[in-house]
Amino acid sequence: MNEDLRKNIRQIAPYTAGERPDRPGIVKLNTNENPYPPSPGVIEAFRSLAPEDFRLYPDAESTDFRRAAAKFYGLAENQVFPANGSDDALALIFLTFFNSGKPVLFPDVTYSFYPVWSRFFGVPFETAPLDADFRINPSDYSRENGGVVLANPNAPTGVALGPDEIRYILDKNPGVIVALDEAYIDFGGISAVPLLREYDNLIIVHTFSKYRSLAGMRLACALGSAELIACLGAAKNSYNSYPISRAGQCIAAAAFADDAYYRACAARIALTREKFVGDMAKLGFRTLPSAANFVFTAHEKMKAKEIFLYLKEKDIYVRHWDLPRIGNHLRITVGTEEQMEKVVTTIKEFPEVNKNHHRKIGAKTHE
């Protein structure tokens, strides 16, 4: 490429998603999708869509979506911002609210899109290190900053902050936006949505991809004060005034109405998660306490990358980052009971894990 041409093109290292193989027989546990189907009401809403309507633009205000979300969360309709997936909402938050020139704060180990958006939009940022147990220290967010962004539960660790810790961070940052990415909150965390009544600097993002089994639809919403939501809308409408499809708006409204179904699925996932953690502990894995639909785990003696590659050879896909602090951990989505049993059975066959496992059994028998 001509150098004069190249120097006028934005160069940036993009976010890298997990592998997305699409062939029969694989166990895909690397992108935190829900293993269970959408609710019956969502399926019925999809079937009710009239193909002839697709030639028309969607409702620019996503009225049905907003109305259903407002009813579900106990908010006003103008406190809901529908988005094309949580990444759409979060990117707009970086673009809209972080313009002071002061650094935005987020953890050193967290969703890896945060530094990408910071660089893309020219937002200075600083990271606060998680402690030795991979927990967020709320006091790290009490220094001067241009905004705070936290995934709660955190990703990829799965460790959650409690309401008092969130309140502490909000109290220490009255003059900047505190954005909470609650993608996994429904699997074991406590949502900060009730705090929206007290804090006008709080904005919360919820996705439909995890809890509501709709990763293929790219749906989410941001929740906040009417003023903040209006600012997001103005930014969005400056480059794209129709972000949510007709199908998406219809299905989102139906998903809010079927929450009992999703609660039951989340409870089932939580039970599977706890059994899996126990089974992995017997094989020598130490797993962080997870409030999400995934676990973050490391073996006492074996390298995570070797286990990752071994599982991949067996058509089981999990997530591994060859990065400081987390290079010896695996993030494993909680799938069905059968999928998690297959992971455990396959890991038992991994030569080094198998050797260590039998060595422990032998020692106990001898005793």
- Which stretches are poorly predicted, pLDDT < 50 over at least 5 residues? 361-367
Mean pLDDT: 93
Q: What's the helical proportion of residues?
A: 25-40%
Q: What percentage of amino acids are in beta strands?
A: 5-15%
Determine the number of helices (DSSP H or I, runs of at least 4 residues): 12
Largest sheet, strands/sense/barrel: 7 strands, mixed
What's a concise summary of this model?
The protein is 37% helix and 13% strand. It has helices spanning 3-6, 40-47, 63-73, 86-97, 113-120, 163-172, 226-236, 246-257, 259-281, 304-313, 337-348, 351-366, and strands spanning 27-28, 80-83, 104-107, 125-128, 147-151, 178-181, 202-207, 220-223, 285-287, 294-299, 316-317, 330-333.
Keywords:
12 helices, 367 residues, disordered C terminus, alpha/beta, seven-stranded mixed sheet, three-stranded antiparallel sheet, 12 strands
Task: Give your account of this protein's structure.
This protein is 37% helix and 13% strand. Residues 361-367 have low confidence and may be disordered. It is an alpha/beta fold and 367 residues long. The strands form three sheets. Strands 2-8-7-6-5-3-4 form a seven-stranded mixed beta sheet, with helices on both faces. Helix 2 (40-47) packs antiparallel against helix 8 (246-257) and helix 4 crosses helix 7. The longest helix is centred in the C-terminal third of the chain and has 23 residues, at 259-281.
